[in-house]
Q: What sequence folds into this?
């Protein structure tokens, strides 16, 4: 498995991505291992580098979480209660430098 350097410190724009969720692209993380208040993703530096691996998010890969975000508005179906508590009145900013993963 090859690492994806687009979500790692090897990325030249890495500093612009600090605090940005790897799943939804919103700025809502304090530091590594925070849980995104927008989509519920548990930030994991290993999954950022290896997006097809599992880690802090049970059996959900970063790639699958991005698919979930587009289809159901959360990183994983089991985050439903957490996201219900979030409500619809949240004010977070989308990082304009964030891009979803591409490819399989």
A:
């Amino acid at each position: 498995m090859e690492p994806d350097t687009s979500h790692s410190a090897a990325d030249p724009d890495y500093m612009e991505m600090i605090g940005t969720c790897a799943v939804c692209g919103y700025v809502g993380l304090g530091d590594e291992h925070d849980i995104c208040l927008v989509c519920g993703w548990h930030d994991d530096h290993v999954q950022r580098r290896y997006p097809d691996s599992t880690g802090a998010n049970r059996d959900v890969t970063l790639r699958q979480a991005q698919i979930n975000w587009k289809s159901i508005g959360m990183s994983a179906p089991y985050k439903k209660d957490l996201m219900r508590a979030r409500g619809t009145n949240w004010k977070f900013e989308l990082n304009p430098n964030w891009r979803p993963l591409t490819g399989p």
DSSP finds four helices and two strands in the chain. The first strand starts at residue 26 and ends at 27.
